[in-house]
Amino acid sequence: MPPVGRPLALGVPARGQRRRRPRRIRWPLPILAAGALTLSLSLQLTRPLPTPTLHVSLPTVRDAVGSPPALPWPKAGEAAVSVPGAGLLLPSGPETPVPVASLTKVMTAYLVLRDHPLSPTAQGPTLTMTAANAADANADAAADATAIPIVAGEQFTERQLLDAMLVHSANDVADALAVWDAGSAASFVAKMNAAAKTLGMTGTHYVDPSGINPGDVSTAGDQLKLADVAMTIPTFAAVVAQPAVTIPGSGVLSNYVQVVGTDGVVGVKSGFTQAAMGCLVLAADRQVGGRQVLVLAAVTGQQGVDPLGTADAATLSLVDAVTGGLSDQGVLPAHRIVGSVRVPWDPHGVGVATASAVDVLVWPGTRWSVALHPRPVRGAVAAGDQVGALTVTDGVRRFTVALVTTAGLPGPSMRWRLLH
Q1: Please, is 70 exposed, middle or buried when counting C-beta atoms within 10 Å of its C-beta (0-12, 13-18, 19+)?
Q2: Residue 203 and residue 88: Cα distance in Å, rounded?
Q3: How many CB atoms lie within 10 A of CB 5?
Q4: Would you call 267 exposed, middle or buried from its count of C-beta atoms within 10 A (0-12, 13-18, 19+)?
C-alpha cells in the first residue's frame, strides 16, 4: 500500500520493472504479394464495364423517287391543292389575299361546331328566330343575296341552320348562328380572326360571318388549311357532302357545289360575288396504292360566263392531276440492318435493325430527314433489345421507328477483364 498522500500512478511499472514493447508481426513476403494480387484481381474483375456504343450508317437526307407532274393551274385567279394525308400543300404561285365571298362560311361553321359540338345524326339545340333575324333575311332577299325566309318566332335546330348555311349558302343564317354563338356579329368576327391566326392563315382577314362583304379576304392556300381541319369534324363533313337539303319553310335546296355526290366529291363550299367572282374549295376521295385519300383543291377569282362552273372544272382537274402524282413509298423498310452495337471486347458487335417499316403516301421529290436517337445501354444486351430509334420527317409528318438488336451481345471473357 503506497504511503498516505502520494498519488497512485496507474499503468506505471513499479521501480525496478522494465516496460514491455508490443511484438510486431512479420508477414512473409510471399503472403503479402499474394494478398496484393488478390486485391488487384478483385478490383479489376469488379470494375464497371464500358458502355456499349451504337453505330448507324444511314444518309441523313433522302428524297422520294419520281418527278412531280405538271399541274393544270387555272389561267385566272389563284389556286392551291392539298393532300393532308401526304403532308402536301401546293399553291399555284405567290399568293395575295383576295375576296372569297361565301368561303367565309366555312370558318363560321367551323367555330359553331367547335363551340357547340354536334354528332352527325343529331339535330342539336333549337334556336328561336328574332325580329332582327327576320329583318336580316328580308334585307338579303331585297339585295338578291342568298338567304332563306325567316319569320320572327320561327324555330330551327342547329343542324338545320348548318345545312342551310353550308349547302344553300344562306347569308341570313350565317348571321343568326354568329349572334347565337358569340352574342354579337362583332364578337364572332373577332373569334374568326383569332382562329385564322391559330390555324396559320396568315393571308386571311374576316369582317363578317357570311362573306357578303368584300373585306372578307383570304388565299387559296389558307382556305385549304381551314378545310383540312374542318373536314376532320364528322358533322361538318356530313353536312357538306349532301347534294341537297330540306329546310322547313324553304323546301328542298340544292348544293351550290353542283359536283357534290359525283366522282367521289364530298364537299366543300363555293362562293360568288362580283368582287370575288367564282371561288371554290373542293374535297374528293381518291384511291392511291389501295388506300383512300382525301384530296383538296381551292380556286379564287374564276371568270367566264359561269364562274362557279369554271371553278368546278378547275378544281376537279387539279384533284385528278395531284392524285396521279401520288404514290405509296417505303421511306424505311422493316427489319433492315442499319448499324451495330459494339463493345471494346467485341469490335464487330451485333447488328441493329429497324423494328418496323415506314410506308407512307408521298409526293415525288419530297425530302425526308433522318435522325438517330441512341438509347443508353447498360449491362448485357439481349436479342431484340431496343437500343435506339430513328425519326424520319418531311417537315409536316414525323415517324419514329425503334432500333433493336438482331442477337445477344456476350459479356467479356475473364482474360479481357484481367487485361483491361
Answers
A1: exposed
A2: 19
A3: 5
A4: buried
| DSSP codes joined into one string, 236-297 | HHHHHT-SEEEETTTEEEE-SSTTTTSTTEEEEEEE--TTT-EEEEEEEEEEETTEEEEEEE
- By the 8 A CB rule, do 167 and 267 touch? no
Neighbours of 38 (CB within 10 A): 10
Span between the terminal Cα atoms of the chain, in Å: 70
Please list, in sequence order, all residues whose beta carbon lies within 8 angstroms of the beta carbon of residue 74, skipping any fewer than 6 positions away: 92, 299, 302, 310, 314
pLDDT in tens, 15-63: 555 556 656 656 565 654 555 445 444 544 455 555 677 778 878 888 8
Neighbours of 360 (CB within 10 A): 21
Q: Are the beta carbons of 374 and 339 closer than 8 angstroms?
A: no
What's the CA gap between 338 and 403, in Å, rounded? Answer: 9
Kindly state the cell numbers that stand for 125: 339545340
Strand 337-343 versus strand 53-56 pairing type:
antiparallel
DSSP annotation of 24 reads: P
pLDDT in tens, 90-144: 999 999 999 999 999 999 999 999 999 999 999 999 999 999 999 999 999 999 9
**What's the pTM value of the predicted model, to 2 decimals?**
0.82
| C-alpha to C-alpha distance for 325 and 163, rounded to whole angstroms | 34
What's the CA gap between 278 and 260, in Å, rounded?
16
Joined together, the cell numbers standing for residue 145 give: 343575296
Q: Residue 165: helix, strand or coil by DSSP?
A: helix
Measured distance CA(104)–CA(209) in Å, rounded: 7
Pairing of strands 346-354, 126-128: unpaired
Q: Could you check whether the bond before residue 100 is cis, i.e. omega within 30 degrees of 0?
A: no
Tell me which fold the domain 78-302 belongs to: Beta-lactamase (3.40.710)
3-state secondary structure of 139: helix
